[in-house]
Amino acid sequence: MRLLFRLFTVVVGLSLLAFYAVFALLTYRFLLAVWSARPDPAVSVALVAGVVVLTAWLNYRIGTPRLLASVEATPLSTDRASGLYRRLDELCEQMEIATPTVYVARLAAPNAFALGGPKSGVVVVDRSLFGLLSADEFEALMAHELAHLEGYDGLVQTFAVSALRTVVSILAVALLPVALFFEGVARATAWIRGTPSATPLSGSEHGVGGIVTLVAVGLTLLVRAYSRRREFAADDRAVEITGRPLSLARALRRLEQATESPLNRFFGLPTPRMPEDETALGRLLSTHPPLETRIERLVEKAEKQDAAARSIPIR
């Protein structure tokens, strides 16, 4: 019986190897035919770019309402917050952008974020910010979010993520025949050895997966690095518009302190500085620069303002 079982597993293993080999070959020939029939490089690039743009646009058009619904955001009317909208109008006039609609939500932590661009933007704020921040601090935080709208930061991030997914998908499809073949080798080997339940990944399969993962991680790091630079740029623009760097610094500090309150810790709500954010990898994968770095930059700007004011001769 044992000999019959071993013979059976060998036959199954060889059959699996043949099946996967033929499947991989057919996939390779199909991809080769598609590649052979490809248009000239300019058209190919245009097609890929078109897919990226269409995907990003759909993500933005569909994703924004879903995100607002997920946080139960409700629009804040001008009747209820005439003073806020009056100041927003002034800031937007300075920045030459359309006044965004302000939505109020109950977020997991005190925060604010912007969606869209300079012509049709949305700013979502947590309800607690109205009691947590002073008028100057709230204005500085709004100026920071308006800077994101002015710079199309949300849209650029959406396009970048869509491009990343497209590139990774194309690479994964291109390597599919190789992955199929070595998947067959791994499964066939397990059956031939008499251990069909064990299908360890071969070194080649790890290599294929590693290539895709490496490209995905590399592109992700680039997108995250760009996001961190845009946070600094938004801070700088907010200071330029309001002229009060310390107001933004105090706002950021208050958000941190409120998020790290004992109540938030008790309920396990996220904090700006989780332990993994303190590691080198955590900092590389973060969409925001370290909070202390941002505050230090803002304090330095305030000190430069004071030094410049003292250097003005009084006659």
Automatic annotation (TrEMBL):
Does the record's keyword annotation contain Electron transport? no
Name of the protein: Peptidase M48 domain-containing protein
Gene Ontology biological process terms from the UniProt entry:
proteolysis
- Tell me the ranges covered by the Peptidase M48 domain, including all copies: 84-300
What is its cofactor?
Zn(2+)
Keywords from the UniProt entry:
Cell membrane, Hydrolase, Membrane, Metal-binding, Metalloprotease, Protease, Transmembrane, Transmembrane helix, Zinc
The protein's superkingdom reads Archaea
Q: Does the keyword Nucleotide-binding apply?
A: no
Q: A Pfam family this protein belongs to?
A: Peptidase_M48
GO MF annotations for this entry? metal ion binding; metalloendopeptidase activity
Which segments cross the bilayer? 7-30, 42-60, 167-186, 206-227
UniProt cofactor note: Binds 1 zinc ion per subunit.
Please report the organism this UniProt entry assigns to the protein: Haloprofundus marisrubri
Q: Which family does it belong to?
A: Belongs to the peptidase M48 family.
